[in-house]
Structures
1.
Amino acid sequence: MIRLLTLAVCFCVVLAAACGREDRAANRAVSLQVFGDPAEIAAYRELVAAFEAEHPGQRVSLIPVGKQSDHMAKLSAAYASGSGPDVFVLNFRRFGQFAERGALEAVGPALASRGYAEQDYYEPAIEAFRMNGALMCAPQNVSSLVVYYNRALFRQFEVPYPSPNWTFFEFFNAARKLTRDTDRDGAIDLYGVALEPLLIRIAPFIWSAGGDIVNDVTRPTMLTLDRPDALRALGLVRSLNSLQGVVPPLAAHQAEDEDSRFARGGVAMLFQSRRFTTTLRARKDLDWDVAPFPVLRKSESALHADGYCLSKNAGNREAALDLISFAVGDKGQSILARTGRLVPARKSIANSPVFLDPTQAPASAQVFLDAIPHLRRTPNIAAWHEIETRADTILEEWFFEPPVGAGMVDPDAGGGEGLSAAIQLRDAAQPLLLRQLKPDTQP
Amino acid sequence: MAAPQPAVAGSVLAAALFALPVALMLVQSTPSAYAQAFAAVPLARALLNSAWICAAGVPLALAVASTAAFGLAQAAPAVRGRLLLALLLSSSIPLTAVLVPRFVLFDAIGAVGTPVPLLAPALIGGTPLSCLLLFAALRRVPRDQIDAARMEGLGWLAIWWHIAVPQTRPTHAAVLMLSLVGFWGAFLEPLLYLHQEHELTAPLMLHAVSLLGSTQWPLLMATAFTITLPAVLIVGALTSFLHHPFKTR
């Protein structure tokens, strides 16, 4: 028995040591950590293969992670120990926490020497990854919040398709007409619209109403959701649930995610970014398209952008920069754009058939490009992700809680409930924003 | 002796709660979805990776937990009390509290990116709970038998293997099952410590398939069933060891 145990331990140690040697050998390659579903990971694999073919002698070690939250957990643990991948993909709303700790090297100057020209990329994506004037990460995509709609349901209930400049009130009327009790059992089984009550989803309503979510997007010191225009937008958003009942109520929202509900035809419109396109392409029986974000006072939408970031401790810095340069070049952008999941940040690819493929849904893919000049972004400071996390909890409770005196509140007045939520949000964010300003927390 | 009625009802309910999801996986998946699952992600490789981690980790964890528990059971009362307190305290530390320190430690010894951090818990018996369960069983082995064996000249390891383990086989089987389920279903450790796609384990593949979207239920259920089946079969095969504590070769 003792011999058996000793053998088992030796087996484990030898095996682990062998694997360790293999990994140390792999460390000489550039490590690229990405997140995404299997189709996206397959595209990254293709990207790596194309890079290695074009750069003989250079090797890339791909580290695929599924969800963005898991990707962040893995990155955070790696950086806590002072290690981490050479190159990784980050959303602009999350890159601040790495940039401000000095974990990133600005890629702008090094990429410029490799022929990278910022004017070849859409400005909102470039600007989102800029910190203190330096381009910290190279933008990969430039998506926005749009309205996915079920064309078959619009036709069935004789609701006109959204026009390119449709207003919030046209959207509102469409949602009302499409909210139905189709089997006449007294319960709504088709909802007009689904909206996740998250800050990133509600922000475009506020911007479109002429309001803002922070006082200064580059150096925010307070949330400004308690200002009149923002309150008006909040009141209108909440009225979708409290007054009109055109969105799934809390029980339905928790029973089924909104993407699934839209895919099975249980909701006629859905606010989502480009990422949802590939899921819907797999549904051959669904007739769908996209429409721009409805206008309240001016045309606005929310930026969704990821970029390739370079670790300050990158072991093979030059090869890592070559990889980033390749990934955001024509070939790299084409490979990823073919997945259908992203709007390429590079203008030449975004305006090419690779993205605007007329044989592929959505028919109105141009909507994503038309939205780009009107994109607004949330702050990219280190504390922003935590602020959003706190805000989302408050907003979900506020959005779904039953109204006081249902049917008696004027949505245009904003409503006292919107004010109380705005104050709660402001108070929740204030300590984090103030901490951001303290000199001892600066890099 | 027949089991009391509430206990039987509880067991039936528990069995139903665990069996229902498996049945749902079977109903929701289609035959073609199984082929798709293996095509969409490197599932076969991931199953192999999980299998070898279980093969190395589970026996080691059980052996360490059992010997530690046996030592605890034979220790002097004062020492035993302190050790039990330490075990209870260590079992109450949340995993998230030690996640980063553990990562830093494994990174410092160059073990990140290797299976070592996944197998390391086996060297401390898996979880403190395993030690506690086995201690509760092993302390009931009659002291006279152990003293007699000592007088016959048997060493502690031989006493543990030939006298203590055969009498506590059901508890060992239960701890083996718990360890197996723990190693097979581990998600956080493989996520943090493994990098290369060919090293990833089965739960990570299930997670990847779940990201394919809300229209891929058959694929998700087929993957879930494929990943659950080996663990269910092994645990099922081990259930016979939960009875007949004194059955020997």
Note: The two ends of chain A are 56 Å apart (CA to CA).
2.
Amino acid sequence: MEHHLATKNIGVSVTDKDRAVAEVLGPGPVTISLWVNGKLHELTVAPHTTLAEALRGSLGLTGTKIACNHGACAACSVWLDGMVVAACGVLAIEVGDRMVTTIEGLGTPEKLHPVQAAFIEHDAVQCGFCTPGMVMSCAALLARNPHPHVEDIEAALTGHLCRCGTYPHIVSAMLALSHNETDSE
Amino acid sequence: MTDELYRRERFPSGLAHLGLDTVEREIPSDEPPALAANAELNWIGKAVPRWDAREKVTGTARYTVDIHLPGMLHAAVLRSPYPHARIKSIDISQAEATPGVQAVLRLFATDVPDEEVFVRYAGQAIVAVAADTPELARQVLQSITIDYEPLPFFVDLASSKQAVNATVYENSDLAGVQSAGLPAMATDYELNVNVLGPTNQHSRGDIHKGFAEAAVIAEGRYQTQVQTHCCMEPHAIVASWGGDALEIWMSTQFTAGVRAQFARQFDLPLARVRVHANAIGGGFGSKSQMSWYGRTAAELSRLAGAPVRLVYHRDEEQLDSGNRSSSEQALRIGARADGTLSAIQLQSYGSAGTAFNAGVGAIAAAMYQCTNVDTEHFDVFTNTGPSTAMRGPGNTQGAFALEQAIDEIARQLNMDPVVLRDKIDGSPVRREERRLGAEKIGWAQRTSPGADSGPIKCGLGMAQSMWPALVQTNAACEVRLWRDGRVEVLSSVQDIGTGVGTTLIQVVAEELGIAPELIQVRIGDTEFPSGPPSYGSRTTASITPPARVAAWRVKQALLSMLASNWEVSADELQIQQGQIYLQSDPARRISWQQAAAMLRTDRISETAGRGDDYAGFASHNGDAAMAINGLGGVQFAEVEVDTETGVIRVLKVVAVQDCGRPINPIQLESQVQGGVLMGVSYALLEERIMDTHTGLMLNPNFIDYKLLGLCDMPEIEVTLLENYQGLSATDAYGIAEPANIPTAPAIANAVYNAIGVRLYSLPMTPDKVLQALGTVRGGQG
């Protein structure tokens, strides 16, 4: 049980069902089902395929970016059952029946998520390559804490790297959202 | 009316916050009238939202790594595990015979008689393959057999400088050495073991007389480290041959430039090479050239007869995509009792690895008034990956030494560093920047070193930057007006994250008097008129004037058409907020769309190129020119130094910057914040660490190579000057590099002010702080 909780924090829960499945997977390509952005997809992947690769490759969801591919920059952040994970550090075959949410599932150019709108308004975007990951972590933070303080924002974005230096404008965007919510209450 | 070719116009001039004057300029008669100051404008000077932000925040922006073509193959690269070796043989036969492998390319010919082949750094590419899947491509590299004879090597500047036998090049190799900076030939110099030069000398006056006149002398040896670019999008290219044409998708800072390089490399007409760069995940200097990997992808595509995708992994980025060269600077400055400088002497060494041109800029010789100057620079080759330009190349390294030395002069003379600079810096722009910055950081409250009683000491410091205002004269922009009233702005110029697309929309909206929503920007494609590079802080200065000129000409065409229809003179027509009306009878009006609907053809179009600055250029060489005045920038830093742990925290940075006319203040603020943060990261954290025993990089990843994160960022206050000079149709210049140059020395000077001990080496890590304080002994010293 304790093991279960510990692993759940990084978004990987090992259940008996997963273990049973894992035993019959590989070494050749395997067919799995993935719930992504509310839709069930069937895809065939090599067992070592990461979730980031599966999303970008077979599913064509290229909004999730791979920048370091070793869990050190968080550019590939997606949600597993609402929790932020680095998709380069999760194998596609271990996702199981958890719901994957990617940047494409959060909002669209026509219908933006509030975090996306705030990023635009505060110019929290430069080259944009780290941006989808940043947006996913910010949206997850707001979902669990609608009124984050600077410290909460810092904690939520620790591990995200941006070389252009969008950090200050990301903080302004998030603080504005935090205050907006307060005003409307 | 003056003569036909030119007319005279009065332009706003001066710093807006101090009150504007005007200046008269002679301008070509086919260019638009003088643009008013920002306060009187509708779109220029406003925080118009970034043109591609919607795509970027939703993940729909298309980067090179997102390009997928039918039948596309994947490349992988075999790299040298040795920092220096003779390659005796390369056996690719097994790889070539592997099913699914479509092309194998040796980057060295090992079968030419009497020709020896060397690799000169660990990570240097030797063989590239293209296969059906990325996995297969990487896997098949293991079947390639290379017979190496490892050779002696040096990976650090200090050892390589002392070397007795050459470990990188012989004189006969110099012709093939790539330059890390401005185009120059290594062959113009003689190699002395691993040292080349002096490659850059500035000499004036009499240096001995200068030091004889000095009341005080500041002397120091400064070291700066190798920094890597760390673009978030790796270097990436998709190359596709079709018949006799080459189509390229590339994460590049210069679509038009790499097109010319591909055309030359493959002996194709310019018109048969097309380069696309839609969204680009950062560049910072490292994505300016076709480079060997671009050439390799195109070659593999030709061999395989299919599109080939080559994308660097993060370790390849760190090893072989360029870096900021290191430096070792012996700087000596003499000053008279009144503060005026009597002598500046600099001997610098720098290593750009296997590349040439590891300079420290001309900042020491050029920023301050001094009659007696003697500077010389030497390149030291090392067995490490070649450097390329990186955000403010040269001057960033040079400023770390110069600005600390000036601080030291001020200390010895018991003068305020700001007051001292008021005496020795001839730039009126920087003088005003110092005044504003000092006010904002609370300079008046600055205490003497070590004034805090506890173990945590606070300090304030400042430093300045110098960078030329560059212009690419080979830069053009097309503006099209369609019958539905929509406007397109087209150029091959690329947006690497600076927001140049937004500035084009603003300039065209302003000129046409219509809303930005009617304007679409199409850039990053060489099918459009050639735009400038996104390097050298020159993009805005180069492309916004032709955009305005083209828009003005389109407007003239539309108004002439309407005027002849209304049987009035075009001069009598005005456009405001999408309405065209007769000045003498404003009730006689028509909407922009209605007027466009009257066009005889579906669309009209004008293309304009970048003309000379109205006051001429200070210099003009090939496609690049320098404006008459440079770009100023002054930064102030507030730090906290923990004398028990040695940890430096930067609490606040005030950045006061000049970019001529600011077009989009929020984007400029973003860019300045980026320059400051990269500077803080350079000052405190980043360093490529080489193992001197194996010659390998020990931190080729984002775990061990430390980049500044959000938790470590200081508060940043950005002030942009509005500096009008009446130099072009937009009067706008660059900002990216000047915002990065002064940060590290401003922090170093603040650290001195906090603890009373100077740090001469970057990055300023806790171990160096403690060593400088004398709290710990030993180490490398």
Note: The mean pLDDT of chain B is 96.
